[in-house]
Structures are given as C-alpha cells and as structure tokens.
Amino acid sequence: MIPSFATQLTAGKVEGPHLLASGRKLIARGSLLRNLNPALADAILDHEVLIVDGPDGARAAVQRNAFQGANQIKVILGDGISAASLAAVVEQAHRQKMKVAAHAHDRASIQEAIDAGVDSIEHGDEATDQQLKDMRDKGIFFDITPWVWETVYSPAWLSAEFRARRVARDDWGRNAGAALVQKVLKSGVKFAAGSDMYLYFPGKTRGEASATMFTELSREGMPSLDIMRAVTVNAAEMLGWQGRVGTIEPGKFADIVAVAGDPLKDISELERVKFVMKEGRVVKNELRLHGSGVSE
Prior knowledge:
Blueprint: H1 2-10, E1 25-27, H2 41-48, E2 49-51, H3 55-67, E3 73-76, H4 83-95, E4 100-104, H5 107-116, E5 120-123, H6 129-138, E6 141-144, H7 149-153, H8 160-165, H9 167-187, E7 191-193, H10 206-211, H11 213-219, H12 224-230, H13 233-239, E8 256-258, E9 275-278, E10 281-285
Parallel strand pairs: 1-2, 3-4, 4-5, 5-6, 6-7
Antiparallel strand pairs: 8-9, 9-10
Helix pairs in contact: 3-4
C-alpha cells in the first residue's frame, strides 16, 4: 500500500523524499473512473478508490484510510458526493487529526468544498473572486496546478493535423491558467503549487516532468519568489508540516536542495537540481563539478 511505503520513506528505510500519502481517493460511484469492464469494475475500484455512498460510508472511508496508514484525505468532488457526505468526511478526518484536500474544478464543487471546511482545494479552475475571498477568510489553501499544455497534449508523435486542431484549445488553456494565477495573487488567499503531472511527458521521468511546473507558473505571471514560496514554506503549512520542513532553521529536518544558478533570475534552474540533502545527510552532490567546494 502507498501509505506504508510513505511511512518507510519518512522513517529512512527506503531512499527517497519525505512523502505524505492520501491513500485511496474518496469518490462517488461513477465519478472519475468510468466505462470500466463490468466484470472487473469492482476489483479495479476497490484497488484505486474508496466509494462514498452517504455520510456513514464517508466516515468509514476516512477510518479505513487512517487504519491503513494514510496521512491525509483526498476527496473528489463534482459527481455525486452530497453535502452531508462531504461534511462527514471533513468531520471524521479532523477528528483523527487528518487534513482534507478536495479535488474541485468547477464553481459548484469549489463552493461545496468551501462550505464543508476542507483544508485545501486542488485545481480550482473556475474559482470566483468571492470564492477566493471566502477561502482566504476561512484559511483554506488554494493548490494551483499549472498545465504544460502544448508539450503534454500536443507531442511530436501526434499527427500535424491533430496538433493543429489543438492550437485554439492550448491557447485557451494558457490564457485561463494565467488569469487564474493573477486572481489568486490578488486575492490574498494562501496558496501552494503542485504539478498534477500524471500523464506521459515525452523524454522525461515523472520527476523531471513535474519540475516543468516552475517555468509554467512563471509563464503564467507568477513571480519567481512566489513560486519558490509556494513549493516550500507555503506547501509545508498546507500539509501541516511547517514545524519540520519548508524553511532552513534549527529544529527542522534539514531537507535542502541547491542549484548552480539563481532561480530568482531563471526559475528553470529548479529543473536542474545539483545538490540534495535529506535530514542533514547529503544524498546527491553535483556541485563539485562547478567548483563549489561543497563536500559530503
């Protein structure tokens, strides 16, 4: 199970980053996963998600994830989870000291998440100025997830004709993303950022593909310092780990990365990490090639 793997990472039993796992996503039946082979549907659903079919089922789903070692709860809104069920998710999760992240794209789902008192809203594409104000007033984090439109959705292996038909949609996506970033910056809402990179990105590992979010956020008008804060100090607070990570100060984990250039001048430097320290132990050091003198 992913939660137990996250526990091994955090305990240092497996080499890798600290990871807070949500376990299986909470969804309504028919949401997100559709058109499954009827003979396999239940087995697939049971492996991937937990079905919420009412307030009691919502509480049970949270408890099941908690029992299996999840650190937080991820709930998918937009198709079928009632207000009462969502309220039950938040109540049960908070009772067990777990945060709730809500996947919500449209205005109605965003409002449901706000009304229920979730801890963060992921994506939030159609968020209004009033909703952002409400999130700010309630202390709900906005988790921005930019898309690298033309690279992911129009790769070279697609026909030129198909890619040409995507131009208008790609332009719309970039413009919508830029408009959302500006609304978030002006609203004063607390925000973090994530890649939402789950698609194939030609020529890149999943980690490398995820790092392209930095240049995309910059392209959408977010200042470099805000981008860096979004993925460090802000993200740490959103996850409830502000006492462990996010800044470099006594008593924290000493999880540190370094690059060869200045990311305030060129944010793409964050795609070329040269040095990694986890809990004070150097696990990667390519800065020696640049004459830094950093030693292990």
